[in-house]
Structures are given as structure tokens and as C-alpha cells.
Amino acid sequence: MPVVRIGPKHQVTIPKEVFDQLHLKPGDFLEAISQGGKVIMVPRQLTAKAPAPSLTKKEQQILFQAKQKINRIQQTFSA
């Protein structure tokens, strides 16, 4: 069983045999989990989030007014 050292920036090198067995590639993502005093690293694929829908002019106006109202309310609490 290979032993790895933690580097100064909290980095670890995955041993080549483990890297190859899991078919990992540079740039892949791993989820690091602390469980029962062990570190478990699980390969993960990140999916792109759907772009936020555009707001209509009316919705933008409502949002702007709501933000202004929130700011006014916050100012009354901080005064």
C-alpha cells in the first residue's frame, strides 16, 4: 500500500497505480470526505449549471425596487 506525504499547500500526490486503476486524468475532480478518521477521495464529474434565466424589464424593475426597500430597512436597524 503506497504512502503519500502531504505537501506544504495541503497537496497529496495520488500514486500512479491508483491513478491508473481509477482511470483518472489530470484536471479530473475528486470529492474529499472525512469519515471515521480516514480521508476518502471519490472521483466526481461536475456538471455545468444551467444559465440563469433573463429577467424581463418589469422583473428587473421589481427586483431593483425590492433591493432598495431592503437597503432602507437595513439602514433603520443599523442606525
From TrEMBL:
It comes from marine sediment metagenome. It holds the Pfam family MazE_antitoxin. One of its GO terms (molecular function) is DNA binding. Residues 4-49 form the SpoVT-AbrB domain. InterPro entries: SpoVT-AbrB_dom, SpoVT-AbrB_sf. Signal peptide: none annotated. This is SpoVT-AbrB domain-containing protein. SMART domains: SpoVT_AbrB.
